[in-house]
Write a structure and sequence with these properties.
It contains five helices and twelve strands. It is of the alpha+beta class. The strands form two sheets. Strands 4, 5, 6, 7, 8, 9, 10, 11 and 12 form a nine-stranded mixed beta sheet that branches. It has a three-stranded antiparallel beta sheet with strand order 1-3-2. The longest helix has 15 residues. The radius of gyration is 17 Å and the shape is globular. The termini are close together.
Length: 225
């Protein structure tokens, strides 16, 4: 029988060690709301949810990812605790115009109203062209792991691959902290718009019944009702 989970709980505070444990068990969170689920619907079809985890000791950039580094050469990288000055919300609303389904409501939907405090420490990874913010992502800090919560960018800057760029910057930041794991979030076993997360060397996926396995072993079984 296929395991089905659809679990939620509120947690307003978590230690770095607790964050490591939650991430290892497939949990994610938006603000104080923690959740994990095994099935959902995407593009009007049922899909199987798989948490992803990057083993930072095994990661090496692909040729495509090395090209992304060149595309952002000359831009300013800013990593700091989240401090919203209005530019983040303006950029978020530009970014969400890219979506035709499941259009995100607001930045607070993902980060809550006290980012960096509830439920844990967080940093903003930002890319700027001069004073102009062109991409930002938000990274939870555990004890030996980090977790990417949400990222967005100016659609006019898509030629620079800013979404991949902030992921690479998050990975670099995690390595500088001597972390073992980087969690890029959920994807699906089936092909989807989240497949960009699967393009990193060293990825594992979470088998809800069997723990973490190399992503290459993930298959796409039929989703059962």
């Amino acid at each position: 029988m296929t395991l089905k989970l659809d679990e939620y709980h509120l947690r307003h505070s978590a230690t770095p060690a607790e964050m490591d444990w939650l991430l290892n068990e497939g949990w994610r969170h938006f603000g104080a709301l923690f959740f994990r689920y095994t099935h959902t619907v995407s593009d009007d079809r049922p899909v199987n949810v798989i948490p992803l985890r990057l083993d930072l000791e095994k990661f090496t950039p692909t040729k495509s990812q090395r090209r992304v580094w060149k595309k952002i050469d000359g831009l300013t990288v800013r990593i700091q605790p989240p401090e919203f000055d209005g530019s983040q919300h303006a950029l978020f609303h530009q970014h969400k115009q890219r979506f035709t389904e499941n259009v995100p409501d607001s930045l607070e939907t993902f980060l809550g109203h006290q980012p960096g405090v509830v439920p844990c420490e967080m940093v903003e990874v930002a890319l700027l062209d001069g004073p102009r913010l062109i991409a930002a992502s938000y990274l939870d800090l555990g004890q030996e792991s980090v977790s990417s919560i949400y990222g967005f960018f100016d659609p006019a800057e898509a030629h620079r691959s800013p979404g991949i760029a902030t992921m690479l910057l998050e990975i670099e930041f995690a390595r500088a902290r001597s972390c073992r794991y980087y969690y890029p979030g959920y994807a699906f076993r089936e092909p989807s718009h989240y497949d960009y997360k699967k393009q990193f060397r060293g990825l594992d996926f979470y088998d809800w019944q069997g723990g973490w396995w190399p992503l290459a072993q993930a298959t796409a079984p039929a989703t059962q009702d």
